[in-house]
């Protein structure tokens, strides 16, 4: 079954996560219209090869034209309009940058696959007795049971209120009838003392005394029912308070923490639909109780007496229910989607000045009467103006559409939300470059800012001010600041769930290796199909902390993670690792997803696992010395005496991988021996996968030779076919430049080259002649 069709069959909570993947950068409508074609393209390859990305992009425009023709035949005016708008948007945004749309589509397709895997795993876990799953399920079942109990008690209270009203009406009718007859009840009953004041002092007949006795019994029953209702209302409000704390302090707080984790690459956060159902149910019950309390006031105004429980307890009940409802409404106003630049969906909470970012707010109380009634305003650093001045932080203005009305139409599930798609930040310029204090203690990538959303609710006579805010964001002015800014986002959300601690980096707390290891693995698993293994993480721990028997519990400071240079290196751990992550995503994603790259492995471990292997066995690992990110391969060979040797080629960087894919480099890599014979030292990928099986499918097929254009009557011989390969001379020095040359040129070069010290083998790119035919004279 096609991936898109499988997604449509998921539960609502997963569909909500699916909706969040798409925006104007890649509209969901286009995904729907062209689902089979989109899934048939290799977007990951296109994201790394501009020529292929250009081809795929133009094919995409052609598919849009074909779909438009179908809608034209069907006379579907709405779809025609939408598709035309989408095409114009894509052309204006990606015509000169086709690799960007390829990366966005590849990311969406990968997130879809993760979503399907999550749903499948959850379905399987539902049939087993997984301890943690049982705890969560039981907790939710208890909460739902409590909500059902509240709804039932509210309905029961409604019935009792009707009984109370009927009983009071009967009493009031009999009282007024008796009063109109001029009868005066005796003063012996304290409950009826109010009635006796309006009666004459004449002796009463037996019939009158009987009526008075009945009236006294009715008033006693009325008083008893009033007291029962007031007592039960107080108990019901206590139950509501308990459930509300479970919702806001536990469930909603857990969701917000999961949102933090998801922002830094952790497991996808569950959607808000279930929470919205629970909170809406509780809010509806609270409003019903509030109406019943108002009804008590009306009844009390009609009939009251000494010791009336309504007079004693109604004000406290009214104050309690209003306070509960206000608190619930304030808690229900949340940031559903944190600020994020569309071109960097895997790195939310980092915003570049002058670049549009998006975010979405939602009210988890789904009242239709509030549709188009709440106007949301966006502000930055509303509450931290004084703090910002003390810290010397920059100040910003929000540009674009910074107000919007919440509605239920824009959301696919009918939730009350507002999505801001066209916001940008501009720095306020001061005399010292925008900062209010030239002695600022924090660098710009450690400054944290809050984006606040505020509105007012008028509902059933109540005015409630609502306010929520984003997680702290880092604002950069140059994209080269992205790595350090992202490191700040990782450190903050890894170590705290405090929602507004903008002074976090004035004294950043330390993290443990267990926390850091999990987050580092997420940086790979969130953008690829594989996280990091225990062995890979151990290698990284050694680079950060040095040799240790057990890294669990070892502490890592913020400076050591991001700011201090590694031992013997001119760059920090995070700068090195972030460039490797970028290298994986842009150049070797498919090989990483296949599990072909061991990546992080110490040289000692590398030698240990390769030494027993036959000659030609090789592995792929990341360079430890390249700041910009590099990848190399190490292989086993035998010298003349039969002794095992481990050889490594000089790492390939992004600059070289722009010219040739890593798979093609591996497939064409040669060593030139002393007799100028080219041999391939790479035979089996560790542990024992034939090189052709692993990398052949990632190499482009060779194009057939083309004849030179000319006189059709003349006989034109084809050009010689050529192929770029990488060659390492066995006696090479530091000849690391890449350039095409023939074997004869290389032979001449090597005979004239002085002997150099042994070290990592450098490679040369050769333009090899693959045909023995002689080219025709020009």
UniProtKB/TrEMBL annotation:
Keywords: Acetylation, Activator, Coiled coil, Cytoplasm, DNA-binding, Nucleus, Phosphoprotein, SH2 domain, Transcription, Transcription regulation. Residues 592-682 form the SH2 domain. It holds the Pfam family STAT_alpha. It is found in: Cytoplasm; Nucleus. Residues 140-167 form a coiled coil. One of its GO terms (cellular component) is cytoplasm. Residues 178-206 are annotated as: Disordered. The keyword Magnesium does not apply. Its main location: cytoplasm. The keyword Transport does not apply. GO terms for biological process: cytokine-mediated signaling pathway. GO terms for molecular function: DNA binding; DNA-binding transcription factor activity. Belongs to the transcription factor STAT family. This is Signal transducer and activator of transcription.
């Amino acid at each position: 079954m096609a991936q898109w069709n499988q997604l449509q069959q998921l539960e609502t909570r997963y569909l909500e996560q699916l909706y969040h993947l798409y925006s104007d950068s890649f509209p969901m409508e286009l995904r729907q219209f062209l689902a089979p074609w989109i899934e048939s393209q290799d977007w990951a390859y296109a994201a790394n090869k501009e020529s292929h990305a250009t081809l795929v992009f133009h094919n995409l425009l052609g598919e849009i034209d074909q779909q438009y023709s179908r809608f034209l035949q069907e006379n579907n005016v709405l779809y025609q309009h939408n598709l035309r708008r989408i095409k114009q948007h894509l052309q204006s945004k990606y015509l000169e940058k086709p690799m960007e749309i390829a990366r966005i589509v590849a990311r969406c397709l990968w997130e879809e696959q993760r979503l399907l895997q999550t749903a499948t795993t959850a379905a399987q876990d539902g049939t087993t007795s997984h301890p943690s799953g049982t705890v969560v399920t039981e907790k939710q079942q208890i909460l739902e049971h409590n909500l059902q109990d509240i709804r039932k008690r509210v309905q029961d209270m409604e019935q009792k209120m009707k009984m109370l009203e009927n009983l009071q009406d009967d009493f009031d009718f009999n009282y007024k009838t008796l009063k109109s007859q001029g009868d005066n009840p005796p003063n012996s009953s304290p409950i009826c003392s109010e009635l006796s004041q309006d009666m004459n002092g004449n002796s009463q007949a037996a019939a009158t005394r009987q009526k008075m006795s009945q009236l006294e019994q009715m008033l006693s029953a009325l008083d008893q029912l009033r007291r029962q209702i007031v007592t039960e209302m107080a108990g019901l409000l206590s139950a509501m308070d308990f459930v509300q704390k479970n919702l806001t302090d536990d469930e909603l707080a857990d969701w917000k923490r999961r949102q933090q984790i998801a922002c830094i690459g952790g497991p996808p956060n569950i959607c808000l639909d279930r929470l919205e159902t629970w909170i809406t149910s509780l809010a509806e019950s609270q409003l019903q109780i509030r109406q019943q309390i108002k009804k008590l006031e009306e009844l009390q105004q009609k009939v009251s007496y000494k010791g009336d429980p309504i007079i004693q307890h109604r004000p406290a009940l009214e104050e309690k229910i209003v306070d509960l409802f206000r608190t619930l409404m304030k808690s229900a106003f949340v940031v559903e989607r944190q600020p994020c630049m569309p071109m960097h969906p895997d790195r939310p909470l980092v915003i570049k000045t002058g670049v549009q970012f998006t975010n979405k707010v939602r009210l988890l109380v789904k009242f239709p009467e509030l549709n188009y009634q709440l106007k949301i305003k966006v502000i930055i650093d509303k509450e931290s103006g004084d703090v910002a001045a003390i810290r010397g932080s920059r100040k910003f203005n929000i540009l674009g559409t910074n107000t919007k009305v919440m509605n239920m139409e824009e959301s696919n599930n009918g939730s009350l939300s507002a999505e801001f798609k066209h916001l940008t930040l501009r720095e306020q310029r001061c005399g010292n470059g925008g900062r209010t204090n030239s002695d600022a203690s924090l660098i710009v990538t450690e400054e944290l800012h809050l984006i606040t959303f505020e509105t007012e609710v008028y509902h059933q006579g109540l005015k409630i001010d609502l306010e929520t805010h984003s997680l702290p964001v880092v604002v950069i002015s140059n994209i080269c600041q992205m790595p350090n800014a992202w490191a700040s986002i990782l450190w903050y959300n890894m170590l705290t769930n405090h929602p507004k601690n903008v002074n976090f980096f004035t004294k950043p707390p330390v993290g443990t290796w267990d926390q850091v290891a999990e987050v580092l693995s997420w940086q790979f698993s969130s953008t690829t199909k594989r996280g990091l293994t225990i062995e890979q993480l151990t290698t990284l721990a050694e680079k950060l902390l040095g040799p240790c028997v057990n890294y669990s519990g070892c502490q890592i400071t913020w400076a050591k993670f991001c700011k201090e240079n590694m031992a013997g290196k001119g760059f920090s751990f995070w700068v090195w690792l972030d460039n490797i992550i970028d290298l994986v995503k842009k150049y070797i994603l498919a090989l990483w997803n296949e599990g072909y790259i061991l990546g992080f492995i110490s040289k000692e471990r590398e030698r240990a696992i390769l030494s027993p292997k036959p000659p030609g066995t090789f592995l792929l690992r990341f360079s430890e010395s390249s700041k910009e990110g590099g990848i190399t391969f190490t292989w086993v060979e035998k010298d003349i005496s039969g002794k095992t040797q481990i050889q490594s080629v000089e790492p390939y960087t992004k600059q070289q991988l722009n010219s040739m894919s890593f798979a093609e480099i591996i497939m064409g890599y040669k060593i030139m021996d002393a007799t100028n014979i080219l041999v391939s030292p790479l035979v089996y990928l560790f542990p024992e996968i034939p090189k052709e099986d692993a990398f052949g499918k990632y190499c482009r097929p060779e194009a057939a030779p083309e004849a030179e254009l000319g006189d059709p009557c003349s006989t034109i011989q084809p050009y010689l076919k050529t192929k770029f390969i990488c060659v390492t001379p066995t006696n090479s020095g530091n000849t690391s430049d890449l350039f095409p040359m023939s074997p004869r040129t290389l032979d001449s070069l090597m005979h004239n080259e002085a002997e150099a010290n042994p070290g990592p083998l450098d490679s040369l790119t050769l333009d090899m002649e693959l045909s023995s035919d002689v080219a025709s004279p020009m």
